[in-house]
Amino acid sequence: MPAPSVHLSLDAVIVAVTAEAPRVLTVRGDSGDDALPSGPLDLETHQTLERGVRDWVAQQTGLALGYVEQLYTFGDRFRDPRERAGGARVVSMTYLALVREQALPAELSAHWRDCYAFLPWEDWRGGRPALIARELAPRLHAWAGADARKHERVDLTFGLDTAPWDPERTLERYELLWEAGLVAEASRDRDQSAASAPGSGSALALDHRRILATALGRLRGKLKYRPVVFELLPPEFTLLQLQQVVEALSGNLLHKQNFRRLVESAGLVEGTGRLATGTGGRPAELFRFRREVFRERPDPGVYFPGAWWSR
């Protein structure tokens, strides 16, 4: 019996924050759906996996990546429909990249999309999304039926009843919705015609929405201990710009005075003595990231107790 074949794909979740919105870069997938930039590993030309993903992103989007880190490896059976048709099993090595949004070549099919168009239940900046109580919670509890453990899982995952909302459980929430058949990918993957829950977000090709949920959870976790947020900002920025980027990624609002006081006291930023122009209001001081903070403490993140509005 011949050995089963494996196809290694290199996928990229490329995130920017523009006009207070977290954005992800997509391309047109083979099925016509939005997809993450991806391509196969070329054993001859790609000296490393990271080099390969950078090459595919440049070809498909025209973007030269800066900050990149390995995200996760996805290899579930039948995650790619070509395997069901007798093709190779597709294993994806995924990478997370943080950039500042820029114009893309018109001749390519790449577009910037709002992350929350795909994961609308994750944006709590205006309070708990009405979608959760109106559409998702009733359907999830109906799916749980008489199973107490499933009901508990629903409540803990979505912060229902007395359970707190955990912003980092993005992947668990998407996977629960998929398992309950409430997102479009569930019926597509199971060859069923059941309708997804109203307002449950736009689908992505293959399991790319699952990959996006994984990336968002990783970013939210990193806010606590790594200054990755500064990769999304220009070299000089106002504290309001910094706050808006953190709010966009976390999906929650910050207490303005507490956040600013704690960011400055933690030594993450330093003033430049210059003022921002064209803000439409009182000129605000420009700041820059203090790289010296890496030598001063091991976890220079922007998550601090007391900086967040309680929900």
TrEMBL record:
Entry-linked SUPFAM superfamilies: Nudix, Winged helix' DNA-binding domain
InterPro entries in the record: NMN_biosyn (IPR011213), NUDIX_hydrolase-like_dom_sf (IPR015797), WH-like_DNA-bd_sf (IPR036388), WH_DNA-bd_sf (IPR036390), WHD_NrtR (IPR054105)
Pfam family, one: WHD_NrtR
CDD domains linked to this entry: NUDIX_NadM_like
Residue stretches making up the NrtR DNA-binding winged helix domain: 229-289
Gene3D superfamilies: Nucleoside Triphosphate Pyrophosphohydrolase (3.90.79.10), Winged helix-like DNA-binding domain superfamily/Winged helix DNA-binding domain (1.10.10.10)
Protein name listed in UniProt: NrtR DNA-binding winged helix domain-containing protein
Source organism per UniProt: Tahibacter harae
